[in-house]
Write a structure and sequence with these properties.
about 425 residues; Outer membrane efflux proteins (OEP); two-stranded parallel sheet
């Protein structure tokens, strides 16, 4: 029994306790599938599809069925007096139970172009919601990019701190040997020991940062907060290529989804204005009715039995005066259109500013990477020389600690700048309207 329990426990750990390692592409795919905001956006697209069907249905024949039953109070029969007869002649008894069934068919013939305009507006809005969905996809993908690379940055910094700790441990051992042989002072040993403690504190903080970055990454891709995950990043290529801001602006104007959706909503607004103006025109309908009543009022004399009749006609309705209702509806639609057109210009201005900022960020981060690489090379050379001098006791422990701190800072800045460069490149692509998923 005990062996079975151990086996089951080991199986549980192997299945549910293992770490899930994800590449950037796998993270984006999983995150988009689990995104709650995308589910809301997709729901809006489906709702807009239904709106198109709704407006289309108003252009097609409408059939309705009505039925009713009425119980009348008792009244005397219908009598007619004739001079040659001493008693009145009974024509018909009162029919107290009335049943009626009515089937109506109505087809709009002309509505002042209201229905066709509403249908076009609904179709434009549907396409706008699809563009919104594509924009939301890109936004969600950017959040995954940021969470992924921030997780990588936290891991990288923790690894640098741990590497630095190992170097300090070696220096502590060397200094201890120097101290025992009278080649170093107690002060030298304590200085390195204090530095070791400081870096140890940094390790604790960095480890917590990794856990927080992991939790943020998990949430972004739709996993549980504490699920064990790891990432498999590809190498970050540090190149910019030929990037012209003017070309990026042209590309953004053609490809940014929020511009496309706003332009579609402007077209929908124009159709809505046309639909509002249609209230000034008459509406013409073809109407047909089929009756199956007991008694049927069109059949005389009335009989206590079911009979069917029908009628076909044309109906016209025209609001000649409604206290400014039509003009109010038109003004509202026109002002909404003005708002959409103005919003389009605002979006264009914001996109140009966003694009310029991301363009400058990319250039700046590229230059930072180059500078930080040189700083690491210089710090490594300085550390190598200072460490050799310290081993020969021609440099002090303070010199060694300064060189150690400078090297750790340079490597940390380089790790940060590499990730910032990668994110700047992704943000610039998104700002230009490119898909980043």
């Amino acid at each position: 029994m005990r062996n079975i329990f151990i086996f089951l426990a080991a199986a549980w750990i192997s299945i549910f306790g293992q770490t899930r390692t994800l590449t950037l592409e796998e993270s984006i795919k999983l995150g988009l599938e689990n995104s709650k905001s995308l589910k809301i956006s997709a729901s809006k697209v489906l709702g807009s599809d239904a709106k198109v069907t709704e407006t289309l249905s108003q252009m097609l024949p409408k059939m309705s069925l009505g039925a009713g039953y009425t119980r009348l109070s008792d009244v005397p029969p219908f009598l007619v007096s004739v001079p040659i007869f001493p008693l009145p002649i009974k024509i018909q008894d009162a029919i107290l139970n009335n049943y009626n069934f009515r089937l109506t068919l109505q087809q709009p013939l002309f509505t002042g172009f209201r229905l066709s305009s509403l249908k076009s507006a609904a179709e434009y809005n549907r396409e706008a919601f699809k563009s919104d969905f594509n924009k939301d996809m890109n936004d969600a993908a950017l959040s995954i990019h940021v969470a992924f690379w921030n997780y990588y940055k936290a891991q990288k910094i923790l690894a640098l701190v741990e590497e630095n700790l190992k170097q300090l441990e070696q220096h502590l051992n060397d200094t201890k040997n120097f101290l025992e042989n009278g080649l170093a002072t107690r002060d030298d040993f304590l200085k390195i020991e204090v530095q070791y403690s400081n870096v140890k504190l940094s390790e604790i903080e960095s480890a917590n940062n990794v856990k927080m970055a992991q939790a943020a990454f998990n949430k972004t891709i739709g996993l549980n907060l504490t699920e064990k995950t790891d990432i498999a990043p590809s190498e970050i290529p540090v190149n910019v290529g030929e990037v012209k801001f003017e070309d990026l602006v042209k590309e953004a104007v053609d490809r940014r989804e929020e511009l496309i959706s706003t332009q579609l909503r402007i077209k929908a607004g124009e159709e809505t204005v046309s639909a509002a103006r249609s209230n000034w025109f008459p509406s013409l309908f073809l109407v047909g009715d089929y009756y199956y009543n007991r008694p049927n009022q069109r059949i005389m004399p009335a009989k206590d039995e079911f009979d069917n009749t029908w009628d076909v006609g044309v109906s016209l309705t025209w609001d000649l005066w409604n206290w400014g209702y039509n003009s109010s509806q038109t003004i509202q639609a026109e002002q909404l259109l003005v708002q959409s057109k103005t919003s389009l210009q605002q979006i264009k201005d914001n996109i140009e500013l966003e694009l310029y900022q991301n363009y400058l960020d990319l250039i700046g981060e590229y230059e930072k990477v180059d500078v930080n690489k040189k700083s690491v090379e210089q710090a490594q050379e300085n550390y190598k020389i200072t460490s050799a001098k310290y081993n020969q006791q021609t440099a002090t422990s303070t010199d060694l600690i300064d060189a150690d701190i400078s090297l750790l800072d340079a490597k940390t800045r380089l790790a940060n700048s590499l990730v910032d460069f990668q994110l700047a490149k992704v943000k610039l692509e998104k700002a230009a309207g490119r898909r980043i998923y």
